[in-house]
Specification:
The chain is of the alpha/beta class. The chain folds into two domains: about 1-30; about 35-125, Rhodanese-like domain (Oxidized Rhodanese, domain 1). Helices cover about 50% and strands about 15% of the residues. It is built from six helices and five strands; from the N terminus they run αβαβαβαβαβα. Strands 1-5-4-2-3 form a five-stranded parallel β-sheet. The radius of gyration is 20 Å and the shape is elongated. It starts with a helix and ends in a 6-residue tail after the last helix.
């Protein structure tokens, strides 16, 4: 009976350690993607050091978008990244509907050497001017 309790404690301890490790690595990866809030990004719309890139579908972009922004759907971004070469010296703010697709795009572009930033909350939280 004592051996069984000892085994249960070991399993519990292993479980706690495993959960702690998983939490540590997932929180580190989400903190590693630079992001910007809607309020902060609005002030950068006319800043020539920044460009905004919509990674939603063309239909989503045509329905509602941040003014004067380009669109490259996330599904096409890897194959069309050469279109962004002219912006290599700028900060690229990526956006989508909620921030998930743009987070993926931000990570992808950063791995390719771009200064990419994810718009937190995407169009769902955008309170600035729209087209």
């Amino acid at each position: 009976m004592i051996t069984n309790k000892g085994n249960n404690m070991k399993l519990l301890l292993i479980g706690i350690v495993a959960i702690s490790i998983i939490y540590f690595f997932t929180s580190q990866s989400s903190q590693g993607t630079p992001s910007i809030s809607s309020a902060s990004a609005q002030s950068l719309l006319d800043d020539e050091d920044y460009i905004f890139l919509d990674v939603r579908t063309l239909a989503e972009h045509e329905n509602l978008s941040i003014p004067n922004t380009s669109v490259i759907p996330i599904e096409e971004l890897a194959n069309r990244v050469d279109e962004l070469e002219k912006y290599k010296d700028k900060k690229i703010i990526l956006y989508c509907r909620s921030g998930n697709r743009s987070g993926t795009g931000t990570t992808m572009l950063r791995e390719l050497g771009y200064d990419a930033i994810n718009l937190t909350g995407g169009m769902n939280q955008w309170s600035g001017i729209t087209e």
